[in-house]
Amino acid sequence: MDDKPTTMPQSWLSTESTAIGTDGVEHHPLRPFLPVNARVLFLGSFPPQRKRWCMDFYYPNFINDHWRIEGEVFFGDSQHFVVEGQRRFDSQLIVDFCLERGLAFFDTATAVRRLQDNASDKYLEVVEATDVRALMAGLPCLRAVVTTGEKATLTLCQQLSLPAVPKVGDSVAIPGIVNHDGEAVMLCRLPSSSRAYPLAFAKKVEAYRRMFSSVGLLQPRLLRYDMGSGVVAFSTMRQGGSSATSLPPAESRHYATFNINRYCGDSDDHVARNRELLCQLLGIGDDRLIMPHQTHSARVAPIDSAFLALTTGEQQEALEGVDALMTNVAGVCIGVSTADCIPVVLYDPVHRAACAVHAGWRGTVAAIAAKAVAAMAQAYGSQPHELRAQIGPGIGLDSFEVGQEVYDAFAGAGFTMSAVSRRYSARDDVREQRWHIDLPECNRRQLVDAGLMADHIANCAICTYQHPQTFFSARRLGIGSGRIFTAVMLAEAT
User: Fold this and answer.
1) What is the pTM of this model?
2) Which domains are assigned to the chain?
């Protein structure tokens, strides 16, 4: 354990309000945190005494589980916001997360007296209540105000003149308050994140998850690609789904939170829930979300009206051992799964056709990207020079360390090894030099050799091994983990 003192950021600390007056009144020590994109406003009662803080931000008590709950909900990891080896939260990580997701924070009292020397709300006397309506007026996207304790809920209901105090788990519309979409802003009462509150951590997580889902914050996070009009292309990130709660905690973290691959050991219910979330986001039915069972082959399969007319069992059989899908049918999302391998999306804007390719090192050696280009030419009349290509997240040169046999396989496949490989030690503690291969570059060169124009090929240049919090990486998390889904869908004609 690192017990060294740390300097915490002061940006949200209202230093002029930290002193206690001679009358025993404490004024709120934190500035309101109100991102303009906020969908949720958390209102507690009042911060605990400074001696209980581990950071200068909301829910600063290290033994309060608020940030562990949010870590579990959004990242499948209750320790996501905890600084490793220290009894504190990473306040900058929390602030950046809240700004990105649109989470606002303040309290229902701006001044209080503590009747006893403890952190209990029961012994707080509210001297000055917060003007909550003024807070909400600056949050045009707001969809929910959340309270998590009896004192905060009672104070807020008095402020808003609500006739009844909602029970834990209930939501009520706040009279006269609507957001910029004309929707009523809801008051949601959730279980307290204090460990003194008698409810299991997992049940608290589920309650918070339901609330975040209701305001649209638990949607799959997508890395979207601009490949032209009339087409949607993306790679999924790890965030935005549900936790794999039917699995043991250690295993669940490796699939959390967004995985839709049913072939990697994840639970069926987790996959089904996440497929439903993605289909809702895309506006399609589950039968229009197509994914093959990949085996590192170089087989390309068409998704056409004949395929769509098959039974579910017949479709699964047809998708067995397939590593690339192509289609010219609008409204059908085709994609491949990766977790370090290279995903490639091809789009033909002239003939309105697309293809999703899984290019692991074996598939790359077998020239699957080039074979996909040839398959589109044969099926749809696609001309290589008219195609657009996007290379998605995959393992990069520095992280893709291989043995001599893999190097020899690439050399035997005709790659210019001086251009796509290096021999060095990527770690200071390992002196042995090993071959490293640039798998994205190998696929880019294959596409150029297949006739694509170099300026029609985009590479997102994201290494999955180096970003395992954002993208699944089998080398970092193990084979028993989730998969990135890289997909393309032609838009319906309007």
Assistant:
1) 0.76
2) 15-214 (3.40.470.10), 222-400+438-490 (3.60.140.10)
